[in-house]
Amino acid sequence: TSFLLLIAVSQGATAGAIDRIDPPNWWVGMENNTVELMLYGDNIANGEVSSSSEGVSVNQVTSGDSSNYLWVTLELDKALKAQTVTLELTSKTNESVTIEYPLLARAEGSSDREGFSAKDAVYLVMPDRFANGDTSNDSIAGLHEDADWQHPYGRHGGDLAGITKNLNYLESLGMTQLWMTPVLENNQKEGSYHGYAITDLYRVDPRLGSNDDYVALSEAASKRGIGVIHDFVPNHIGSEHPWMFDLPTSDWVNRDAEFSPTN
User: Fold this and answer.
1) N or C: lower Cβ tally within 10 Å for the chain?
2) pLDDT tens sequence for the chain (263 residues)
3) CA triplet 212, 227, 179: central angle to 5 degrees?
4) Which has the closest alpha carbon to 179: 130, 136, 132?
């Protein structure tokens, strides 16, 4: 199942719409049955949130420095089945927004998966530089950087389809784990082919494919006895990430003048 889903929002009268929710979905049956949602929308801070869904309760609602964010902590300990959770966001002026949030069923045996170890042969690949399996996504409208095969720091067109089509090659080498540099969206103006300047933490970069393509690659690799190591960067984001244009809190990122990044 893809981990990026659409959020259905219906709004009353003149209430502000919810433009985005992170994470875009969650699962029932997790060992930790608490999940914190980040809601983004025009002037939603200090709103009140309630749940009308069975087994789901609102534990805490918190605002930041920006008027456009709201954090909502849900308790899911009594949510026994996959469902669409209905939340009601009420503003100070008593205008309301109804939010439908998906709780998915966990894949059977997902908690029993074995990670990689010293027994594995790991193949590291930078997807943009490996193989171009789908030329239709080399350049995507709405993203800053188009393909430029002549530029050493440009996008060269490699993608998830190219990796999927070459899994037999990795298998022939005896590889048991595939480690790709981050495949999430890097919508920078230049030089982000490597994947380490993430601008959307829940969306595969469309120039590499889709979230469904990522799942398909993982499943195809598994059939060949190859695991997929998900490279995820929690300590920095790209300068074009939407947060950078509307910080949730004043200290959300380190902007200290004395801060010196490493190489």
Assistant:
1) C
2) 333 333 444 333 334 589 999 999 999 989 899 999 999 999 999 999 999 998 999 999 999 999 999 999 999 988 889 999 999 999 888 889 999 999 999 988 888 888 899 999 999 999 999 999 999 999 999 999 999 999 999 999 999 999 999 999 999 999 999 999 999 999 999 999 999 999 999 999 999 999 999 999 999 999 999 999 999 888 899 999 999 999 999 989 987 677 676 76
3) 85
4) 130
> Is 82 in contact with 103 (CB distance < 8 Å)?
yes
Give dist(CA 102, CA 98) in Å, integer.
13
Residues present in the chain in total: 263
Q: What's the per-residue H, E or C state across the chain? A: CCCCCCCEEEECCCCCCEEEEECCCEECCCCCCEEEEEEEECCCCCCEEEECCCCCEEEEEEECCCCCEEEEEEECCCCCCCEEEEEEEECCCCCEEEEEEEEECCCCCHHHCCCCCCCCCEEEECHHHCCCCCHHHCCCCCCCCCECCCCCCCECCCCHHHHHHCHHHHHHCCCCEEEECCCEECCCCCCCCCCCCCCEEEEECCCCCCHHHHHHHHHHHHHCCCEEEECCCCCCCCCCCHHHHCCCCCCCCCCCCCCCCCC
The backbone torsions φ and ψ at residue 166, rounded to the nearest 5 degrees and listed phi first, read -115, 20
